[in-house]
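Hi there,

I know you've been waiting on this one. I reran it after we fixed the sequence typo, so this is the corrected version. Both the input and the resulting structure follow.
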Amino acid sequence: MENLGEVLRSSAIVVLTLLPIINPLGNVPIFLSISRRHAPTMRRMARQVAINSWIILLVSMLIGTYVLDMFGISLAIVRLGGGLLVAAAGWRMLQTEDDNPVRTAVAGQAAEFSELEVAKRSFFPMSFPLTAGPGAIAASIARGTNAADSPSGYLISTISIAVGTFVTAGIVYLCYRYGSKLLDKLGEIGTVAMMRFVAFILLCIGLQMMWSGWAELNQIGQ
């Protein structure tokens, strides 16, 4: 029971770490614009984006640190660079006056895509960089460094990472799959307000990541 509690706690931390950065609700208008609100296309794209994002985040957490070591990149630099990208994305969302994606999402026209087109659009731009983007990958790598050294601890950590990223991908799927209903309730003004609020949170998350990376670099330099 103690191990189960640790798995659940660690999985919840993974979800709470990734969701604000991924920001699936803020991406709903873009998703609806890309899928053109065609119900079968939305269902297939939402499922594929969730699968793609789960794989990207899972691999980043499990082997991201080894990839960094191979290229000689420190985690502090990843935090600093990833935070810069996240903060820049939030700042752009706050400054832009172009709400065409929102208008398109609210009043979009239904259209059907081929399987190849669905796969292409599901990966780029929806899976990367909009969902599992640089910020989420940097956060995943940072979270993956917390794995325990003992075999049992490493097993618990791996299970927690798999469960946490799976739950996160599931939430992404639900947001994208049923996002049109949320937008219909919010309306155009409510959607713009929601995106501005999420953009501010995203900016704060990016600044926090940059500060953590900068503080770690200063400790290394001393």
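Quick highlight: The chain has nine helices and no strands.

Best,
R. S.
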